[in-house]
Amino acid sequence: MKILTVDIGTGTQDIFLYDSRVHIENGFKLVLPSPTMMVRQRIRQATAAKRPILLSGVIMGGGPSQWAAEEHARAGLPLFATPQAARTFNDDLDAVREMGVEIVSEDEAARLDGRVERIELRDFDFPAIAEVFARFGVSLHDLAAVAVAVFDHGDSPPDYSDRQFRFDYLDERIRAENRLSAFAFPADSIPRIMTRLQAVAASAQDVDAPLVVMDTAPAAVLGATFDPEVRHRSPVIIANVGNFHTLAFRLGAEGIEGVFEHHTGLIDVAKLDGLLVALAKGTLRHEDVFDDHGHGALMYRQESILPASAALDVVVTGPRRSMMQASSLNVHFAAPFGDMMISGCFGMLAAVADIMPELADPIRASMSANPAAARPPWEVM
Predict the structure, then answer these.
(1) How confident is the model over 318-343, as a mean pLDDT?
(2) Mean pLDDT of 148-154
(3) What SS3 state is found at 205?
(4) CA angle 229, 235, 239 (to 5 degrees)
């Protein structure tokens, strides 16, 4: 049984091909530029060539691609976008127009002449990934499932904070189903408000396998729980220090006991240490994070788990984890199955086992502390 997992971040997209016949540490993996970085490169090339641009496709991750689009518009060059593609930059199309983007209908886009550089926006490009694997003799035609993770703010109503909207969503999911895999959905069950997750599903029409989508940060934290030094810790605090967002969960015997999410660029190691200690004490308040321009905090248990006479133990993952090398806390850098970069892929794999029971047994056997019956790759390829 094979499952393709793709964790799409701001800097990289991290890809792991699970094969139940192979020891999990021998699974094939790729770490490639993220889709938004690839779009950024194409926009900058068009800007240098002074070519007009048409952005089409669906909502995808912004950041680098948006910065490049703004540079293109500031250079006085035409920049067109279809409505769905434009919402990559802002759900409010008037705000996108203020960036210098001309919003055009699909029909108008089709009539733009060949002098326009056409760039399709989408987070998940299955044909491209399949082509890379095929070049190395690995087929993706026999997948049991595909899992894709992206970060989704959600489609907040006008005049409502997108940071608060996301935290309302996190609270609703945790109260409905208190486990990290509650942030994973089969393609036909994605909440309507999660427009980026919906866009991933729309981009996966050429996938001949069930699709699961998940939020990136819970996926990374869930993956980190499979580090051998973390498996049996309870309670435990796990922080994912991402390129744009830092999210930490406090996990206990009954599930999620607390969570906060901040913007990585607005915190330093001292501030992060303080937030983690408050999370452990049970004293962290939503406004402590939200009023500092972060997303917020939720506490479901107020009992302290802070050691009386020692520094707090925390588990850290994520591409900006090196920030915590200067921490005053006892930091363990998680490396589930020997690889921090694909923690999110392992988290998605565990979530697939939770929401697709028919696939659960081989996945859980592979992810157990001592997987049995796994073989080296040359015996199965």
Answers:
(1) 95
(2) 94
(3) coil
(4) 70
Cα gap 78→165, rounded to integer Å: 33
Number of domains making up the chain: 3
Sign of the torsion formed by the C-alpha atoms of 304, 305, 308 and 309: negative
Q: What DSSP state is assigned to residue 326?
A: G
Q: How many CB atoms are closer than 10 A to CB 48?
A: 10
Are the C-beta atoms of 362 and 20 separated by less than 8 Å? yes
Structural domain ending residue among the three candidates 72, 87, 121: 121
Q: 39 and 166: one domain?
A: no
Burial of residue 378, with CB atoms counted within 10 A of its CB: 0-12 exposed, 13-18 middle, 19 or more buried: exposed
- Convert the pLDDT of each residue in 194-239 to its tens digit: 999 999 999 998 899 999 999 999 999 999 999 999 998 999 999 9
In tens, the pLDDT along 266-296 reads 999 999 999 999 999 999 999 999 999 999 9
What are phi and psi for residue 269, nearest 5 degrees? -65, -35
Q: Are residues 109 and 88 in the same domain?
A: yes
Phi, psi of 207, rounded to the nearest 5 degrees: -95, 120
Co-location of 75 and 182 in the same domain: no
Domain that holds residue 79: 35-121
Quick one: 344 and 283 in the same domain? no
As given in the structure block, the two tokens for residue 271 are: 């501030």
pTM exceeds 0.85, yes or no: yes
